[in-house]
Amino acid sequence: MNKLILVALVVFFATSSFAQKKSKVKLNLTNALVIGQMDNPADRYSLEINTTELLNTRGVKAVPSLNMMKLGGDAMILASDSIADLMKSKGVDTYVLISVRGYDRKFKVTGLKDSLETVLGTNSLFGLYREDIVSISFEFKFFREGHLIYSDMVKCGNIGDRETVIKRYRKKVGKRILKKWKKK
User: Fold this and answer.
1) pLDDT tens digits, residue range 134-163?
2) Which of 42, 60, 73 lies closest to 140 in space, CA to CA?
3) If phi over 0 gives left and psi between -120 and 50 gives alpha, with beta otherwise, what is residue 149?
4) Which of 2, 94, 130, 169 keeps 20 to 30 A from 54, CA to CA?
């Protein structure tokens, strides 16, 4: 019985210390290619431009993916070696993919298993705004060298129209950049 309790305590402390180490991981973001994963071009443009502006004003070198490909083009081109080499020559090594996870505040951050090609191949089912919603959850996935290194979720509540979504998004993401993403 004592051995069972001892083993349980060791497992508990080992997993709790692992969880603490995982939660303290810093992204140290210094540069980014911002990719909005939206079906609606206007929504994609809004997310990419607002996110790029927020990053740039907080000292993170950022470029929207709209500068790298044609509007309505296949996002898979961003995973190509030629685009990766072009981005490296411009001093950008981090890709930030932004999508709407849903219109609920209960979503959790996804795991760190997806490759850049896999994520770029998926489509978002949700738009930036829909009637009768009061909250929206945005998921951010950060990739370096084609591998997912960090995921984050930003939840915006108390929204009533598209402009309020953008306003709350700018406020929350602006704070998140300084607190969790940017290198100090």
Assistant:
1) 899 999 999 998 899 999 999 999 998 999
2) 60
3) alpha
4) 130
Which residue has tokens 């993401």? 173
pLDDT at 165 over 80: yes
Q: Of 49, 64, 70, which Cα lies nearest the Cα of 96? A: 64
Tokens 């305590």 locate to 9
Copy the structure tokens of residue 174: 């602006």
Q: Residue 68 in contact with residue 36, Cβ under 8 Å? A: no
Q: Please give the Cα distance from 38 to 74 (Å, whole number).
A: 12
Q: Rounded mean pLDDT of 94-105? A: 88
Band the pLDDT of 25: cuts 50, 70, 90. Answer: low
